[in-house]
Design goal:
Length: 626
């Protein structure tokens, strides 16, 4: 999302009075803060009220906010755990209290035992046990475990069965009819297992029958004037309701899955994708698509899945959708073949999985209702701009552009930059820096030749090695192996010809454009196929070219400045053999400057604890060489 068209005052008006998570971005679109709220509109508004004091750190954070986004949840509990997941994934600068999963309580059903128990746990292990949670109230979890054991008559002892059958007399729970007496060896494992399965249904959200039973008992006790027992049942109902407010944001199986849901309104539709990795929701993305009025929801989902997973490198094992599709089996087969293992598309009908799909649909509807025009503008600035540039130079499509620039100071420490835009947005993870090694002095053409040769030679070598590998080809590939649809050079005919020569020598055929500037160093057009093509300066294509050119220049300048800065802090002591950082600091502490150091004898230098005779003689020799 671009920050250029994000007007904070306008976006604040769109915030819903619902629980959720808000995500703050800075001017470079980096996530700097993630927070949760019972009411998004009330909480986020507070940051921008002059009278509200959040402290110095939050005040500094607000000064850097360029835009924000939010994810609506069904409860504050869901917002809390989603906040935790996003903080762990993105590690925002202004989030300091990073919580660990072990701080949350879980309910564990020990399916690895022949006679399972329901127990309290602080962490999820990679085993065959079944875990429920996380929850925020440890007391409520313990009450629920106690309730489950009483209702379903499950054992609470930690003995190993069948090894310990008959070794001890049955405990008090057996005599109180709260345990069937597994320790006697008289309990059939299958019938006990049925009780365990019923207990897991309850823990998985099927709690209405139990609540109904407890409520009936509470009312019966009230009628019989047994108010203490009635209060006990009332407290148990409250504990159950506290725990069964299921955490939909965290999955218990630890699998990777995508949640896909859509909202449509006439010819517009938004598809929302929640990304769950390792059992945690780590992010989401929405996609604005054009549809026909007669399109059914299943048609929209089918088209989206085929287009989306055709272009994404990662395919999860499970995909949840809100409606079944007529070609679902075909899509499953295609995705399974792409992934190399079984991929399943599911349409949950009840429980936590259905609620998770509903949550995605709810967020899709909110995006559609509130952000339709902004999303269209964003697509115009990105994908639309790429289409405009492709049309200018006669290409069918452009998805990836690479731009290059050279920076130096009178030829000193020349460096090159490579920046990448994909679908109109910066792909910063693919940016690369180059120190110029073969060129002396200010020669931008030859410096560019070196950069391009190294970049594409590296890519060709990676592809060659991957093709020759017996397996795991992807492991050897980096962003260098992804070649652009067009190369954008910072300059005119000369720079374009250098690029074309390098590509020709390497046997590559990639279109090359020059981003031509006027006398005031502003972009005026494109140089392509020996012709300068004028550009509509009010169009999105022109604006995208300008952003690309500025980004290449900025990236090169920053790299050059960092190298220049490192050299400027170099000390004359670095040139003395045997003097490293520790001795350099010791010498600077002991003497006011080089003149005083020059007057020191070898004995004076050896008096410094960090110095030995060899180092002292080396310093003395440096100042007294003939």
């Amino acid at each position: 999302m671009s920050n250029e068209h994000f007007i904070i005052e306008e976006e604040l008006k769109k915030l819903p009075d619902q629980p959720g998570v808000y995500i703050m971005h800075d001017e470079r679109d980096a996530i700097i803060y993630v927070g949760k709220a019972l009411s998004l509109t009330k909480r986020v508004h507070q940051y921008f009220q002059p009278s509200h004091d959040e402290g110095l750190k939050k005040k500094q954070m607000v000064a850097h906010i360029s835009r924000f986004e939010y994810i609506v949840t069904d409860s504050e509990l869901e917002a809390l755990v989603l906040e935790n997941n996003l903080i762990k994934e993105h590690r925002p600068k202004y989030n300091t209290m990073l919580r660990d999963d072990k701080t949350y309580p879980y309910i564990c059903v020990t399916l690895t035992e022949e006679y399972p128990r329901v127990v309290f746990s602080r962490r999820i292990k990679k085993d065959s046990n079944k875990y429920f949670g996380p929850f925020t109230s440890a007391g409520a979890v313990r009450d629920t475990i106690d309730l489950v054991n009483k209702i379903y008559h499950l054992r609470t002892c930690n003995k190993k069965f069948p090894r310990d059958f008959g070794k001890d007399r049955p405990c008090l729970n057996y005599h109180m009819d709260q345990c069937p007496g597994v320790c006697t060896g008289q309990v059939d494992a299958e019938s006990y297992g049925e009780s365990v399965r019923e207990a897991m249904k309850f823990l998985d959200g099927d709690y209405k029958p139990v609540v109904k039973m407890l409520r009936e008992k509470m009312e019966a006790c009230s009628k019989e004037m047994e108010f203490e027992r009635a209060a006990t049942f009332r407290d148990l109902i409250e504990s159950v309701m506290d725990c069964v407010e299921k955490q939909k944001i965290t999955s218990y199986d630890g699998e990777d899955k995508d949640i896909v849901a859509a909202a449509t309104d006439g010819e517009d539709a938004v598809v929302q994708v929640f990304f769950i990795r390792g059992g945690r929701m780590i992010g989401r993305e929405h996609y604005f698509i054009n549809v026909r009025i007669e399109n059914e929801m299943s048609d929209i989902l089918s088209v989206f899945l085929k287009q989306y997973y055709a272009g994404t490198p990662f395919i999860p094992r499970e995909i949840y959708v809100q409606e079944e599709m007529s070609d679902e089996d075909m899509i499953e087969g295609w995705l399974s073949e792409k992934k190399g293992r079984k991929v399943t598309i599911l349409t949950p009908k009840r429980g936590a999985k259905e609620k998770l799909v509903e949550l995605a649909a709810k967020n899709a509807r909110m995006v559609l209702d509130q952000d339709r025009e902004r999303i269209k503008r964003e697509e115009g600035r990105t994908i639309g701009a790429m289409k405009e540039i492709a049309g200018l130079i006669g290409l069918e499509r452009i998805e990836r552009m690479e731009a290059y620039d050279i920076s130096n100071t009178s030829g000193y420490q020349s460096v090159g930059s490579m920046v990448v835009f994909e679908k109109g947005k910066p792909a910063r993870s693919d940016y690369r820096k180059f120190r110029i090694k073969s060129v002396e002095g200010p020669n931008d053409y030859e410096s560019m030749r070196e950069v391009l040769t190294r970049r594409f030679s590296h890519g060709l070598e990676e592809i060659k090695n991957a093709r020759g590998a017996a397996e795991d080809k992807e492991a050897t590939l980096s962003s260098f192996s992804k070649f652009p649809d067009v190369i954008m050079m910072d300059g005119g005919k000369g720079q374009v010809n250098i690029a074309l020569q390098v590509l020709d020598e390497l046997g590559l055929s990639i279109p090359v454009c020059g981003m031509v500037k006027d006398d005031h160093h502003r972009t005026r057009g494109l140089f392509y196929d020996n012709v300068e093509i004028p550009i509509d300066k009010s169009g999105e294509g022109f604006k995208l070219i300008t952003r690309l050119q500025d980004e290449a220049h900025r990236f090169a300048i920053e790299f050059h400045r960092s190298l220049r800065g490192k050299n400027q802090v170099k000390s004359f002591l670095d040139d003395i053999p045997g003097i490293g950082p520790t001795r350099r600091k010791a010498l600077m502490r002991s003497f006011s400057g080089p003149d005083e150091m020059k007057e020191a004898s070898v004995e004076d230098l050896m008096a410094i604890p960090e110095m030995n005779q060899k180092a002292a003689e080396s310093v003395y020799a440096y100042f007294h060489k003939q």
